[in-house]
Amino acid sequence: MNTQKIADVQWTKDYDQFKILEYNREINEGQIKKLITSIQENGFLLPLLVNQDNYVADGQHRLEAAKRLKFEVSYITLNIDFDVLPYIVSRVNECSKNWSLVNYFEMWLCLQKESYIYLDKLFKKFIRFDSFPLFSKFMILGGKAMENFKMGEFTITDSYKKRIEMDLNNFQEIINFNSLLKDFGFVFHQAVANLVLHPEYNHEKMIEKLKENAGSLAKCIDRVDYSIQLQTLYNKGLKKNKIRITKR
User: Fold this and answer.
1) Cα 122 to the chain's mean position, in Å?
2) How many angstroms separate the CA atoms of 42 and 45, rounded?
3) Which of 94, 97, 240, 246 is an S-S bond match for 227, by CB 3.0 to 4.6 Å?
4) How many CA atoms lie within 13 A of 187 on its CB side?
5) Which residues, in sequence order, are bridge partners of residue 73?
6) How many CA atoms does the CB half-sphere of 71 hold within 13 Å?
7) For 2-59, what is each residue's pLDDT tens digit?
8) Are residues 73 and 14 in contact, defined by beta-carbon separation less than 8 angstroms?
9) Alpha helix (H) ranges present in 72-176?
10) Beta-carbon neighbour count of residue 60 at 10 Å?
């Protein structure tokens, strides 16, 4: 990766010279408003990071805020090959509270990364896109896997695909079991995810319990309460192989 510095900090009001990467996250108006206030109070403090062709690797929100205020912007130019830019975007935003897993996902999906295309198909089949935290639970994104996911290096083996698709099929069968459960909503989905991901979970056993006692599940607003109900239903009549999905 070539990131040799070719210029010091420069200043300009020629906003049109900068190019926005199509795979970068969409402009967030809430963030723009915060930046406008900050620039008005403190000036334009943090330079944009651009490559030699003026593609913005970091600072598209700061650029937009300055443009609306007609403030001069500072920028630093680095010699960065175009195909390396997404990795720079990922790295500079790794510690940003404003970048979510969804933002990383959308970027690498736009760049046609194979594993992210596969994930997108699973989204469309099983879970609403706005339920990404729930989906990440199924993908067990933690530690090195999380870092790889953000950097566009997330891969999925065929054996893991079979496992995740089985877990998601089990999840889908429970939340769509009847009209009552379909109406329970997102916190219920979270509890169901915890259930089907339990290492000792037996799906056939759970479906049998639902056929016999689905009416014992009551609507509530707390994930833990749903977890207790599911746990109680699953363990009903069992002397061994009981499972626990909540500490309460």
Assistant:
1) 14
2) 7
3) 246
4) 12
5) 12
6) 23
7) 444 445 889 999 999 999 998 888 888 998 999 999 999 989 988 999 999 999 999 9
8) no
9) 85-92, 101-110, 114-126, 132-139, 144-150, 158-175
10) 19
The predicted-structure confidence for 93-118, as pLDDT tens digits, reads as follows 766 667 778 888 888 988 899 999 99
Indicate the residue type of 231: Q
CA-based end-to-end distance of the chain: 50
Q: Tokens representing 54?
A: 């003026």
For residue 94, give both structure tokens.
């790794």
Length of the chain: 248
Residue 7: the pLDDT is 56
- What order do you get walking across the sheet with 56-58 strand by strand? 10-12, 73-78, 48-51, 56-58
Mind listing the domains of the chain with CATH numbers?
1-92 (3.90.1530.10), 100-155 (no CATH), 158-235 (no CATH)
Q: What is the pTM of this model?
A: 0.67
CA 241 to chain centre: 34
